[in-house]
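User: quick one, fold this
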Amino acid sequence: MSQPAAMHAKAETTPPVHPGLVQAEIDQRIFDLYDDYCHGRMDRREFMAKAAMIAGGIAMAQSLLPRYAMAQTVSFTDPRIKATYVTYPSPGGNSGTMRGYLVQPSGAGPFPSVVVIHENRGLNPYIEDVARRLATDGFLALAPDGLFPAGGYPGNDDDGRALQGKLDQGKLRTDMLNSARYVKEHALSTKKLGAVGFCWGGGTVNWLAATLGADMQAGVPFYGAAPDAAAAVAIKAPLLVQYAEKDERINAMWPAFETALKAAGVTYEKHTYPGTQHGFHNNSTPRYDEAQAKLAWERTLAWFKKYLG
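Assistant:
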């Protein structure tokens, strides 16, 4: 069962720069508070209250809230792709059924498949746009909505974050696992599977790599939490690990993760992008770094083309 993706406004053709304040105009303390807010360590009220204690903090804090119209770079009507919403079984997940945004390149296929894992707030317009970007480069992309069992992405990140936090987290990961298997086995797939994810989704890409083993052919986690060493030994997929420079919590996990990858004989590359904040690929807020995001995405596409064909 599917429906057209006509709910989204026509997108720009190139990644726009977020309006208003730019990174250089925002106090690093505001970025740090925003990171805590994004990861559910405080709500919006507390975020704004703490920002108000810093000179100019309210304006800086407000400028960091996402503007998703800015994140749209590929229109859902782009002739190079076909985008639909699909539902599929998800045994062991939060409801037994999942819904995702499936984007295929124009043409008969088959195509290498990539599952696109969202952040900790459900399938927002930025992640849907990432799926469309992949399809324009020849990949069959599925962006699952982990919030589907709770009614789907609610249209704003605050409610989305709260909904995702209330889900059974083990079952939520099972929903992502079933989504990966669904797109890999899709009739339009070459049966080669890649995974890319951001923040919570980056950590989930690492988890998928450990869980799927040889059934996953490539992974690109953006600023994602590392799996524990015991799980990492099962990873077989080549990993392109993408980090932001100013992301101490995630970066602190790298030494142990690298040790585990080496012990497992995993092919990997790690890149840390200078001057960047956690979330630098997301072009809906001033955390977006256009030059570094472009470089990271070029590397992502090259990685998938190398290992998925």
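User: anything notable?
Assistant: Residues 23-64 form one domain.
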